[in-house]
Predict the 3D structure of the following.
Amino acid sequence: MAKHFGGAVALHGIDLTIEQGEVHCLVGENGAGKSTLGKVIAGVHRPDAGQLILRGEPVDFRSPRASIAAGIAFIAQELAIVPDRSVIENVFLGQAGRALDLVPRRRLRAKYDALAAKAGFDVDPAAPAGSLRLADQQKVEILRSLARDADLIIMDEPTASLAGSDADQLLRIIDDLRSEGRTVVFVTHFLADALAVADRITVLKDGRLVRSSPADGETADGLVESMLGRSLGSMFPDRLDSPPVTADPALEVTGLSRDGEFHDVDLKVRRGEVVGIAGLVGAGRTELVETLVGLRRPRAGNVTVAGHSGPFRSPRHAQQAGLVMVPESRKDHGLVLGRTVRENVTLPHLASVSRLSFVSKARQTDVLGELLPQVGLDPARIDSLVGELSGGNQQKVMFARWLLERPTALIADEPTRGVDVGARAGLYELLRSVADEGAGVLIVSSDNEELVGLADRVLVMRTGRVVGELVGDEIDEDHLLQLMFAEEAREESA
Ligand SMILES: Nc1ncnc2c1ncn2[C@@H]1O[C@H](COP(=O)(O)OP(=O)(O)OP(=O)(O)O)[C@@H](O)[C@H]1O
Ligand SMILES: [Mg+2]
């Protein structure tokens, strides 16, 4: 199978066999060609050369519809929901063709309930899909692929926006699909997940197949080495020996509340410090940080950034005070897909009073030439359209944008989702260096390993409140889980 886009070769003639009834994981660096391979199988892209053979018969899909008709379901890396339609409509979208309107509502609802129960997902079927949080939108996509009753299901990073228990739930669903004799192709950057669930693992690198072998014989280190072409030293930089208790606060929050979301939040991030926020999906973390940067208005409380008092009315105001955020998802925030990397990185800065708006293109190229490798992007792609980058590389563009002018305080919401392991280590290094240069860094993460490895201090949120703090050596997965899951009863008696 071969596929190129203009001058860029995404797949160089790959031979691969996927057995009926197996779970087959695809792993590889950002831009390795995983999504392209998935899209060729799903009829989204037509290959330049090569032959797709399905159950012994050569097939030539001219559209996604043709692949669906052949029993293939594809969950794209980019979300594909219709925002103003209900969850139930999204799940059964395109399924019965135009006849959907003719299916009695009650029957559809019963079908939905059965599907959701089987998957173990609890998503309100009547809600407009666009109003859901990202993790729930991802569940809608998973339910849709299950509703199609497909024989081969391709999942392109379905867990990138799912946290903890939901991600585990998805692994159980994959297991169930296998026991029903279905075939699953699973693309993931979580190598532990790949090792846990796969029968076979295929490693792609630069559009070529490195190897395809039984999961039994694979290890995380071995996979990393084949993906990157080198071994990876330690994933995390050293943390501070002791917390900088006397350093000035970069970001200070007092008594911040928003009805129904979070209550009376106090927090301080000092210059030089990396602070994490842990919690389950729904704990109020994203709502909190979106309020800090002016995307939502608090009912009460104060936000201060190195002498500038908020709360800030908009991200622009927050940015002028020195506070910026890399948002949770590249899927729906702020990247202009039809513009170049250069434009996307410099875009929000040109509007503000910025050094960079006055400099020449050549100087921009110099500045970006230094910054792009720091976030793990090839500087040769400076004038590529963002829409032509792989999913993980788009996330790195987001990072570059907010690090271009070193902020006083940087918030990163789930910063490494969808980013390959090599680049992830690079981003951790970068976040630490931003703190070393005197900024305060606040990270929201559902990946406890990431918080344990990176943060000097972790705050734990539950149902809209900060319920605990761990410092230095206290930060480990056991302590985090205890605080995240502590019983409501204990909270009341306290
Ligand atoms: N529509 C497109 N136009 C131009 N180039 C593209 C397009 N889609 C993908 N590419 C290029 O093809 C190569 C493979 O991309 P692909 O999306 O398959 O990577 P991936 O392995 O899925 O990466 P990630 O882990 O970041 O999702 C990349 O160099 C990418 O820039
Ligand atoms: Mg991809």
